[in-house]
Amino acid sequence: MGKASRKTDWLMQFSNSKNWFVRLRDENGRRCVKSLGTSDRETAVILAMPMVAEHKARLQAARPRIEAPWQRRLEPGLHAGPDGGQIAATERELTYYNHNGGFLRTEPNGGPVFGLVGGPLNLRSLAEAYIGADFGAGRGKRRSVAAKDGDDAILETYLSHANVTGYYEREARAVWAVFKTLDVPLKDATRDHGRKVAAHYEAQGLKSATINKKIGWLTSAVNLAIKENKLKFNPFSGVVAQRDDAERRLPLSDADIAECKAKLDRLDDTDQLLFRVLATTGMRLSEAFQIDGEGTEGGARFVIVGKKTDQSLRRVPLPAALLPYMPAKIKGHLFPLTAETLKRTSDAASKRLMRFLRDDCSIADSRKVIHSLRHRAKDRSRAVGCPLNVQYELFGHEEKTIAAGYGVGSPVPVLKKWIDKIGF
């Protein structure tokens, strides 16, 4: 079998020199000749390869192509909306609220604007950009479209297995796209590759907790593949550097709560009730949207929330300060959900309540947010001497509270005695 030929027509020798030269043409057709300083052809090939690779990369970058950068309709921030409402703009999304702060709808904040870059505007460049025709050495060929490979199937399997949809699916696919830019198969990926994905988000100024959440999608997908014997190593596990960069949340003070109570009528009835639930129980915002019925034990009404972990699943008595504002019997969801997801619903509610704190109540400290109601409830329970095990049961963390069944833990009347002391 003959030796495979390789194309090295970028190498040349002049009649008056024994040395080899590399000969290239730039994107404008100008010829560039450079001596490689050796008369040995094999050495010349090795020396020239980096130059040729860099040259080809420049030519590729200069090829005409269509790009579609995102053009925003509105700058990020709050804007006046129709009929006295407001529009909350992010980089990619517009969220509309009515004059009472009620959620209306979301829509894209602009869209892609197509344009030709990387080459002169003429018939040839347009054809190359739009249909991928190569009018150079590869005449008539089309650019290949990247096909999904076995690694893509690993992500698809995980998304289907875990039923990841909507916002979370889009986030997972975006992180996967960042990893794909490294151009390395998962089976060959190392923790250094995982750290490069983390570095991509660190460069955006994201907090380590946010980066952990994003890379968690890749970690989970690979863990599933390992369980199914498709992979043997997880390059994303534990690659985010541990940093103390989380902003410490502060509880709302008594003065803050007094201001909120005085301005509470600026919220609609549903959000007023939601605010009271969060303030008097210390539950998480997303947990309030999980309330879909109630139970009674020893004459005390309670709800079950906390579906995130065994530690968060718990019974929460309805406090005395909250009962006058509650329906006589909770039947179905206490707070209506949209047709989309609980995540979307609670996010919209968070934006409304945050606007209430900032604009209506003039609470400007960035460390004070809606979650500060939970911190306040914990502080007040500690201040009145609530036993630590009861705190775990009321707020749902660190120790299992109800995972083995509704009968585990303190009697609801005992829990109610302590939750009543939080007040509002």
Give a short summary of the structure.
This protein has 424 residues and is an alpha+beta fold. It has four domains: 52 residues, no CATH class; 41 residues, no CATH class; 78 residues; 166 residues, hpI Integrase, Chain A, CATH 1.10.443.10. Helices cover 39% and strands 13% of the residues.
Task: Write structural notes for this entry.
There is one protein chain. This protein has helices at residues 41-62, 123-131, 150-161, 166-180, 191-202, 208-227, 254-263, 269-281, 285-288, 342-360, 372-383, 388-395, 412-419, and strands spanning 11-13, 20-25, 31-35, 65-67, 70-71, 77-80, 86-89, 93-97, 103-108, 111-112, 115-117, 295-297, 300-305, 314-317. The N and C termini lie far apart (87 Å). The strands form five sheets. The protein has a four-stranded antiparallel beta sheet with strand order 6-7-8-9, with helices on one face. It has a three-stranded antiparallel beta sheet with strand order 1-2-3, with helices on one face. A three-stranded antiparallel beta sheet has the order 12-13-14. A hairpin with an 8-residue loop joins β13 and β14 (314-317). The radius of gyration is 31 Å and the shape is elongated. The protein is built from 13 helices and 14 strands. The chain has 424 residues and is of the alpha+beta class.
List the helices and strands and how they pair.
Elements: E1 11-13, E2 20-25, E3 31-35, H1 41-62, E4 65-67, E5 70-71, E6 77-80, E7 86-89, E8 93-97, E9 103-108, E10 111-112, E11 115-117, H2 123-131, H3 150-161, H4 166-180, H5 191-202, H6 208-227, H7 254-263, H8 269-281, H9 285-288, E12 295-297, E13 300-305, E14 314-317, H10 342-360, H11 372-383, H12 388-395, H13 412-419
Antiparallel strand pairs: 1-2, 2-3, 4-11, 5-10, 6-7, 7-8, 8-9, 12-13, 13-14
Helix pairs in contact: 3-6, 4-6, 5-6, 8-11
